[in-house]
Design brief:
The chain has about 525 residues and is of the alpha+beta class. Helices cover about 60% and strands about 15% of the residues. It is built from nine helices and eight strands. The strands form two sheets. A six-stranded antiparallel β-sheet has the order 2-3-4-5-7-8, with no helix packed on it. It has a two-stranded parallel ribbon with strand order 1-6. The radius of gyration is 44 Å and the shape is elongated. The chain starts with a helix and ends in a 10-residue tail after the last helix. It is found in: Cell outer membrane. This is TolC family protein. Its main location: membrane. It holds the Pfam family OEP. InterPro entries: OMP_efflux (IPR003423), TolC-like (IPR051906).
Length: about 525
């Protein structure tokens, strides 16, 4: 009797609230991206919509013609990047410094002419000419001259025959400047700094390439993250549609459709933000792209990144990189060039502690240069000469000793800096290698975690079909799987960034592109 009354009350209650339930069905049945359409009219005989789908598999690269690989990036960066071109100017600048230093050995030709005529008197008529040729050995200067000093009031000391006086001689330092002088010191230091300029060039290019690689893998991560979320949106929307259809035939609680639609909308919000992040990542990577005319270009929207290679860096490769870093790192090469320069400077400063003694000797010949024939007395002999000795010596040598002391202090500072830099570089290489090994272990564990999470999701879907689970749990399992996949892509991108850092800290590049 009670059961009959209960059934009647239930039927009366259901009939009173059936319009309300109809409105609820209409609201819950709306598509995820449209808010107006209602659900189809409830009909019997509708089949159940499947909720279990093959989803979140490994993302495969698309059309290979659209893949913008790391090698493509290297070709553009090393060929057209303004900073790379600017770095190439460092070598040209160093060569110009060497050329400038070689100017100290250029022959010099000089001439002067002075004449005074007053009151019918030829006071003086002076014409002096000299060709000076610096020689590398011993700081010697080879001199050739022709002088003509005539006139009433010419100093008898400098008077010459009317036909002039020719001379050929040498100037030789036998004290300070014999072993090394300012000209040779400047040239040798300029040559040493060529190596420093080349090291600077390599270092700047390596820095540009490291930043480009990091921006490339940031772009890769943004692409994968956006793709995963977009796939998650599609899956959630499919589940929402299936849940709504089940609710229409009375096989699903209407409130489950609300839960499914909230998940769709939440993932759509994430997808919108990730689209912005992807756009920005593409713009940042485009900062490194220039054409051969020096005009900036942008990465096409259809371009996709290559898949990570994830090559394991072996111990043998680590040892090779460590040895290279300890011997050929640009920072160490620059310091070695500086030490070489300071060594030359120290040798020159020691030379300056010696007394300055210059010997000069010139063989003279009188000749008539206004006639085509050479007179018989045009002859250089031991009876016609000029000799001279110049001597100077600072008694306390304070300036010279101070400069020498300062140079020696710089040598010690640079030596200590090189020792510390070498150890820091090797330590940094090993540190980044340890980071790579840690990423390898994390990636292996992450792959296992993702596989287990897929099993959990599939099991949850099966339990749902048996009525033992809820839409909330399914969405939670799927969201967790998406998060794990995003973290996996983040680990892959960070692994490639650390791999580029390993080669950078070793003083080289993972992609050389012929440079």
């Amino acid at each position: 009797m009670l059961s009959v009354v209960s059934k009647k009350l239930f039927s009366f209650h259901l009939s009173r609230h059936w319009p309300l339930l109809g409105l609820l069905f209409a609201f819950l049945g709306r598509p995820a991206q449209a808010q107006d359409p209602n659900l189809p009219t409830r009909r019997s005989g509708l089949e159940k919509a499947p909720l279990q789908t093959t989803q979140l598999n490994i993302i495969r690269p698309g059309d290979t013609a659209k893949v913008f690989s790391l090698q493509d990036l290297a070709d553009l960066v090393f060929a057209n990047h303004p900073i790379v071109k600017q770095a190439d100017l460092l070598s040209d600048e160093a060569r110009s410094q060497v050329l400038q230093a070689r100017g100290g050995f250029d022959p010099k030709l000089g001439s002067d002419f002075h004449r005074k005529q007053f009151g019918g008197t030829d006071y003086y008529n002076n014409w002096g000419n000299e060709l000076k040729v610096p020689l590398w050995p011993g700081g010697i200067d080879l001199k050739a001259s022709y002088d003509r000093y005539v006139g009433t009031y010419v100093n008898p000391e400098g008077r010459t025959p009317v036909s002039g006086l020719a001379g050929v001689g040498l100037s030789v330092p036998i004290g300070a400047g014999l072993l090394i002088d300012a000209r040779r010191s400047t040239l040798r230091q300029a040559k040493a700094m060529q190596n420093a300029a080349e090291a600077d060039r390599v270092k700047q290019i390596n820095e540009v390439w490291l930043q480009a690689v990091k921006d490339y893998w940031t772009w890769y991560y943004s692409v994968q993250q956006s793709a995963l979320i977009q796939e998650g949106v599609a899956l959630a929307d499919r589940r929402f549609q299936g849940t709504a259809r089940r609710a229409q035939i009375g096989d699903q609680a209407p409130i489950d459709s609300v839960e499914a639609q909230i998940t769709v909308q939440d993932r759509q919000v994430q997808a919108a933000q990730l689209d912005v992040d992807l756009l920005n990542a593409r713009l940042v990577l485009s900062n490194h792209l220039w054409n051969k005319d020096g005009q900036p270009v942008e990465l096409p929207t259809y371009a996709v990144p290559q898949s990570p290679v994830l090559d394991t860096v072996s111990r043998a490769e680590l040892q090779r990189l460590t040895d290279f870093a300890a011997a050929q790192h640009p920072t160490l090469r620059k310091l070695e060039a500086k030490l070489s320069q300071l060594s030359i400077e120290e040798r020159y400063r020691r030379e300056m502690l010696k007394p300055k003694v210059n010997l000069s000797g010139v063989l003279l010949s009188q000749g008539d240069f206004y006639r085509s024939e050479v007179p018989s007395y045009y002859n250089f002999g031991m009876d016609n000469y000029k000799v001279g000795v110049d001597f100077s010596f600072p008694l306390f040598l304070r300036a010279e000793r101070g400069k020498l002391q300062y140079t020696r202090i710089q040598v010690k500072e640079t030596t200590l800096e090189r020792q510390q830099s070498q150890r820091t570089i090797v330590t940094r290489v090993n540190s980044v290698y340890n980071t790579l090994r840690a990423y390898e272990n994390q990636l292996a564990l992450q792959a296992q975690t993702i596989a287990n999470q897929r099993l959990l999701l599939q099991a949850e879907l099966q339990k749902f079909e048996l009525g033992e689970s809820t839409i909330f749990l399914i969405n939670a399992r799927e969201t967790k799987l998406i998060d794990l996949r995003i973290k996996q892509e983040s680990l892959r991108a960070n692994y490639e960034k650390s791999r580029a850092e390993l080669y950078y800290y070793a003083g080289t590049r993972s992609v050389d592109a012929g440079r």
